[in-house]
Amino acid sequence: MLILECPYCGIKGEETEFHAGGEAHLKRFGPGSSDEDFETYLFMRENPKGVHLERWRHANGCGKWFHAARCTMTLEVFGTYSAQSFEPPKEIKDILTAKRPGWSWRNFK
């Protein structure tokens, strides 16, 4: 079972306290984008064996969305951070690098 901490209200709880929202840091294309860009936004998702960045919502608490870095193999949670971030904060990247040398996810290293 995952244990997540909401970065907004500080509540730590089991994954049943939260609601998974899929992959984090997706780039949404606006009007006038190509069909290929829109198709990529709608259908192409990472499904890694290892480090993954995800969106979560504190459904049974403050109701806010946030991002979490975790390992899909071990269910280890490396940290959570604001959903308004364009990339994981340095502290989480440092934790990931220390625990999973050579990790990468999309354009993040």
Rg on CA atoms, Å: 15 Å
The named CATH superfamily: Folate-binding superfamily
Order of helices and strands: EEEHEEEH
Tell me the total number of β-strands.
6
Fraction of residues in H or I helices: 10-25%
Put simply, the count of helices is: 2
Strand percentage lies at 25-35%
Biggest β-sheet description: 4 strands, antiparallel
CATH fold node name: Folate-binding fold
Walkthrough of the structure:
It is a single chain. The protein has about 110 residues and is an alpha+beta fold. The chain has a single domain (about 5-30, about 35-100), classed as 2-Layer Sandwich (Folate-binding fold), CATH 3.30.2270. Helices cover about 15% and strands about 30% of the residues. The longest helix is centred in the last third of the chain and has 10 residues, at about 90-100. The two termini are about 25 Å apart. The mean pLDDT is about 90.
Strand and helix layout:
Layout: E1 3-5, E2 12-14, E3 19-23, H1 35-43, E4 51-57, E5 65-71, E6 77-82, H2 90-99
Antiparallel strand pairs: 1-2, 3-4, 4-5, 5-6
Key terms:
Folate-binding fold; 109 residues; SoxD_sf; sarcosine oxidase activity; Sarcosine oxidase subunit delta; 17% helix; 4-stranded antiparallel beta sheet
Give a nutshell description of this structure.
The protein is an alpha+beta fold. The protein has helices spanning 35-43, 90-99; strands spanning 3-5, 12-14, 19-23, 51-57, 65-71, 77-82. It is built from two helices and six strands; from the N terminus they run βββαβββα.
